[in-house]
Amino acid sequence: MSAQFPVARPRRLRRTPALRRLTAETRLASADLILPMFVKEGITEPQPVASMPGVFQHTRDSLRKAAHEAAEAGVGGIILFGIPAVKDGTGSGADDPDGIVQLALRDLAADLGDAAVVMTDLCLDEYTDHGHCGILTDAGEIDNDATLERYASIAVAQAAAGAAVVGPSGMMDGQVGAIRGALDAAGHPDVAILAYSVKYASAYYGPFRDAAECAPQFGDRSTHQQDPANADESIREVLLDLDEGADMVMVKPAGAYLDIVRRVRDTVDVPVAAYQVSGEYAMIEAAAEKGWIDRERTIMESLVSIRRAGADMVLTYWATEAARMAS
Ligand code: PBG
């Protein structure tokens, strides 16, 4: 009896690095990567973020330097988070024309030109003394519609300072429509909106709260961010945001929500971003530091997986380093 040989041998195309490179279905390009950056008012030296090794709260100067390095590595964009020296109930630092993000935006818009897209996170939690993403009622609940007015004003301040794209992340109902209307009325019809449409109430944001100093002083974000148990709701959020004028949509976090990334990608015809958040970063850095996983390989695998799930772009704290490793 003759031996049975398999006709189909998928291993043929895996045999050499050149064959594997030729047949790869997903590629990670430096232009797909967006670097989130923190800039803090009133510091003279960059401050390391303990739970995110390699990430800093920047001074205006160190931000310019790091943004330049990111652009040189080929990243597609930078998204800015500001930490004001003084916080108050309404987050007045957020739309102050001389607030830290507006100052940093002017720096980067001038420095970077068209080398990378300069974007902003648009929220209140970094700016309020209570750490919530909106204005509070006397009863201590977030007032959705009063918050929309603040977001509209922040959007205009960020656009006036040079943001090409604003990223509303507060998960208030109607935020994209309010921002679009305000931008248009203020003469900024060309400023685009990257909507954090799908944003889960996630424990993976833990380290970010150190980086942006925005832990809520009481309560949590589960009255406005989504329940991790839900998927259909994400499609509803995305469709609402597109209806209100979003140019691009985001899913956040990325790694634990790859099914959602895929569903969104298959549903919409606008660019889809996914945010590999602080906890995803911290877990890999911590395990690598212990010598339990190969740091570079795990980083690149995590990023290519997010692309494979359907994200056109990935926000990641490794953007500069990964851009150097990518094509
Ligand atoms: C809100 C905002 C948060 C993150 C990005 N934008 C915090 C939150 O919603 O609680 C988290 C990002 C991360 O964990 O890396 N301004």
Automatic annotation (TrEMBL):
Broad EC category: lyase
Active site positions, chain numbering: K199, K252
Assigned EC number: 4.2.1.24
GO terms, molecular function: porphobilinogen synthase activity; zinc ion binding
Keyword terms of this UniProt record: Heme biosynthesis, Lyase, Magnesium, Metal-binding, Porphyrin biosynthesis
Keyword Lyase: yes
Record flagged with keyword Metal-binding: yes
Reaction(s) catalysed (UniProt annotation): 2 5-aminolevulinate = porphobilinogen + 2 H2O + H(+)
Involved pathway(s): Porphyrin-containing compound metabolism; protoporphyrin-IX biosynthesis; coproporphyrinogen-III from 5-aminolevulinate: step 1/4
GO biological process, one term: protoporphyrinogen IX biosynthetic process
Binding-site list for 5-aminolevulinate 2: S278, Y317
Regions crossing the membrane: none
Record-linked InterPro entries: ALAD, ALAD_AS, Aldolase_TIM
Binding site for Mg(2+): E237
Chain residues that bind 5-aminolevulinate 1: R209, R221
Pfam families given in the database record: ALAD (PF00490)
GO cellular component: cytosol
Record-stated family: Belongs to the ALAD family.
Subunit text: Homooctamer.
Function: Catalyzes an early step in the biosynthesis of tetrapyrroles. Binds two molecules of 5-aminolevulinate per subunit, each at a distinct site, and catalyzes their condensation to form porphobilinogen.
Protein name in UniProt: Delta-aminolevulinic acid dehydratase
Gene that specifies this protein: hemB
